[in-house]
Amino acid sequence: MHHVVSATTNPAKIQAILRAFEEIFGEGSCHIDAVSVESGVPEQPFGSEETRAGARNRVANAKAACPEADFWVAIEAGIDEGATFSWVVIENRELSGEARSATLPLPAIILEKVRAGEALGPVMSQYTGIDEIGRKEGAIGVFTAGALTRSSVYHQAVILALSPFHNAIYR
C-alpha cells in the first residue's frame, strides 16, 4: 500500500488525489495523510510560474514534514490570464510529475476583486453565499452548473501528473 502525503488539508484536493491514485494503482492501493504546509507564494498566486512554484514548495515542505512517505502531492490553484487553474506536482524518491489543470475563465466582476488583492475563494463565497466554497465545489462548480467541480478538474491533472510513475517510457 502506497503512503501518500497530500500537501493540503482541503477536502476537494484530497478527494481528487485519492480518486486518481486509486484509478491508476487500484482501489485500496493507497493511504493518504494530509498535512498543512506553506506554499511560499501569496495566498492567491498569479501566473503559471508563481502557481507552479507554490506547488513545488508545498511538495518540498511535505517531504520535510513526512519523509517516510512513498509519494508527496501538491495542488496549487492560481489565476492566469483571467482564468483559474492549478498546478499539480507529485514526487516520490526517484521521479516527479507535473501537470497543469484545465482553466476556467472568470467573470470580470470576480477578476476585479481578485486583482484588487482578494483571494478567489472568499470572493466566490461572498457572491454565492456558499461558506468555504474553495473546500467544496469551487468557482468551477458554480460556473459550470455542477457539470465540473474543483475536485473533478484537479482529478484530471493528478492523473496526468501520475503518468511518469506507471509508464516506463518516461524513465
From TrEMBL:
| The Non-canonical purine NTP phosphatase/PRRC1 domain, residue ranges | 7-165
Described function: Phosphatase that hydrolyzes non-canonical purine nucleotides such as XTP and ITP to their respective diphosphate derivatives. Probably excludes non-canonical purines from DNA/RNA precursor pool, thus preventing their incorporation into DNA/RNA and avoiding chromosomal lesions.
Q: What is this protein called?
A: Inosine/xanthosine triphosphatase
Q: Which cofactor does it need?
A: Mg(2+); Mn(2+)
| Binding-site list for substrate | T8, T9, N10, P11, A12, K13, E68, A69
Cofactor annotation comment? Binds 1 divalent metal cation per subunit; can use either Mg(2+) or Mn(2+).
Family per similarity comment: Belongs to the YjjX NTPase family.
What domain of life does the UniProt record list for this protein's source? Bacteria
Q: What is its EC number?
A: 3.6.1.73
Subunit text: Homodimer.
Q: Which GO terms describe its molecular function?
A: ITPase activity; metal ion binding; nucleotide binding
Protein residues bound to Mg(2+): E38, E68
Q: Which GO terms describe its biological process?
A: nucleotide metabolic process; thiamine metabolic process
Q: Which UniProt keywords apply?
A: Hydrolase, Magnesium, Manganese, Metal-binding, Nucleotide metabolism, Nucleotide-binding
Entry's NCBIfam families?
Answer: inosine/xanthosine triphosphatase, PRK05074.1
Catalyzed reactions per annotation: XTP + H2O = XDP + phosphate + H(+); ITP + H2O = IDP + phosphate + H(+)
